[in-house]
Amino acid sequence: MVEYSLRPALEVESDVIRDLIHLVGINPTGLDWRRFLVAVTPQGQVIACGQLKPHGRDLLELASIAVHPEYRSLGLARAVIERLLDGSPRPLYLTCVSSLGPFYERFGFYALKPDEMPRYFRRLSQLAGLVFTLAKRGETLLVMKLQ
């Protein structure tokens, strides 16, 4: 068990957040430190993060959920997600690889069919389908929603 606390990110942590996002290999766009929640050790090391990312005025996405590899399987992602979901407006969307769908279903998210997706996510899904096909990863991109 690791000791940590959850708090809003500080401006001086913006590079650390970006580095963590790159380390775990998730979407590095739209990383504004002001929207991030971070999990930090008593020594101040950022070990996990996540954000609520707006897409225009009407769409909000749970995004950038990242846990440092040395701290995985300790419940940090769950803790970050639960805190971000607490009081967040609905609906809330997220995108993830298909193998992570069951994890997000535990929080009440469900996968959307293409005709149910907001335009932004439908375009993203179509583009990701091409990328995943080319990479032959055996994964698809899920767009999920929480009411």
Alpha-carbon distance between the two ends: 33 Å
Number of helices: 4
The fraction of residues assigned to DSSP E strands is: 25-35%
Q: Any idea how many domains? A: 2
> How is the biggest beta sheet arranged?
4 strands, antiparallel
Structural class category: alpha+beta
- Helix share, percent: 25-40%
- CATH class descriptor name of the largest domain: Alpha Beta
Describe this protein's structure.
- The protein is of the alpha+beta class.
- The protein is built from 4 helices and 7 strands; from the N terminus they run E-H-E-E-E-H-E-H-E-H-E.
- It has helices spanning 14-24, 76-85, 101-105, 119-135; strands at residues 5-8, 36-40, 46-55, 59-67, 92-97, 110-111, 141-146.
- The strands form 2 sheets. Strands 1-2-3-4 form a 4-stranded antiparallel sheet, sandwiched between helices. It has a 3-stranded antiparallel sheet with strand order 5-7-6.
- The protein is globular and about 45 Å long.
- The model has no long low-confidence stretch (mean pLDDT 92).
Features:
2 domains; alpha+beta; 29% helix; 7 strands; 4-stranded antiparallel beta sheet; 4 helices; 3-stranded antiparallel beta sheet; Aminopeptidase; 147 residues
Helix and strand arrangement:
Blueprint: E1 5-8, H1 14-24, E2 36-40, E3 46-55, E4 59-67, H2 76-85, E5 92-97, H3 101-105, E6 110-111, H4 119-135, E7 141-146
Antiparallel strand pairs: 1-2, 2-3, 3-4, 5-7, 6-7
